[in-house]
């Protein structure tokens, strides 16, 4: 039976969509939109109490939290190399990146709120936008540093689910922080976007719903 993914195109649900494609699992996507009230339907609330995507129906369960879903999929599916073994030296790094993707994700979310969702100009705070952009730029440095030794992916052993968590997040972060100062990260992002499963997942969910510009400049403070 196909997994049922409750999703907004271009949101964190892309991580789950992409991972399911990497695993070769069937996925049926139930689409929502960020601003049309569809996340508020009682039926969806029963699947995701904070009314957020992703939520995934699989194996007779309903799961929310993208990182937990990614880890669950890695732990319950076999025949892949998306997660280092529990006694591997790389396991702690894998866990760190899985969760660090949400440190970067939180920064992006704060900037999405300021740049995209606050409906009136007077509600936006150039001070908050400036601080959040700086904090995001600092958080991204850890990724650039990790890639300095020329490795292709976050783990030296190769592609893993940590790249799935991080990859989506970097794509969104690049709307707010110019990646010119992050050459390794730039190449890394291009590398993961070239993956067949990434592209198949993009095609399955359709155009992202968040951004109408490639880059959002900071307003004058
Ligand atoms: N930590 C959660 C965050 C989920 C989340 O905030 N999802 C966003 C889309 S990226 C959402 O559904 N936002 C709707 C809202 O805030 O109303 C996860 O990783 O699944």
Automatic annotation (TrEMBL):
CDD domains: GST_N_GTT1_like. The keyword Transferase applies. Gene3D superfamilies: 1.20.1050.10, Glutaredoxin. GO terms for molecular function: transferase activity. Residues 1-81 form the GST N-terminal domain. Transmembrane segments: none annotated. Keywords: Transferase. The keyword Nucleus does not apply. It comes from the Bacteria. This is Glutathione S-transferase.
């Amino acid at each position: 039976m196909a997994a049922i993914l409750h999703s907004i195109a271009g949101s964190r649900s892309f991580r789950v969509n992409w991972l399911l494609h990497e695993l070769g699992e069937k996925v049926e996507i139930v689409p929502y939109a960020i601003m049309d009230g569809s996340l508020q339907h009682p039926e969806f609330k029963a699947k995701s109490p904070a009314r957020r995507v992703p939520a995934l129906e699989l194996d007779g369960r309903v799961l929310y939290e993208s990182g937990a879903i990614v880890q669950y999929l890695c732990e319950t599916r076999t025949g892949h190399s998306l997660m280092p073994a529990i006694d591997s030296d790389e396991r702690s790094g894998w866990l760190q990146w899985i969760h660090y993707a949400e440190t970067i994700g939180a920064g992006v979310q704060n900037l999405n709120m300021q740049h995209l969702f606050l409906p009136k100009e007077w509600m936006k705070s150039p001070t908050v936008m400036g601080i959040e952009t700086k904090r995001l730029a600092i958080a991204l440095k850890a990724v650039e540093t990790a890639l300095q030794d020329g490795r292709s992916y976050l783990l030296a052993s190769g592609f893993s689910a940590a790249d799935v968590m991080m990859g989506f997040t970097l794509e969104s972060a690049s709307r707010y922080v110019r990646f010119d100062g992050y050459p390794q990260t730039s190449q890394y992002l291009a590398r993961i976007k070239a993956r067949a499963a990434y592209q198949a997942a993009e095609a399955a969910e359709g155009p992202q719903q968040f951004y109408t510009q490639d880059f959002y400049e900071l307003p004058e403070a």
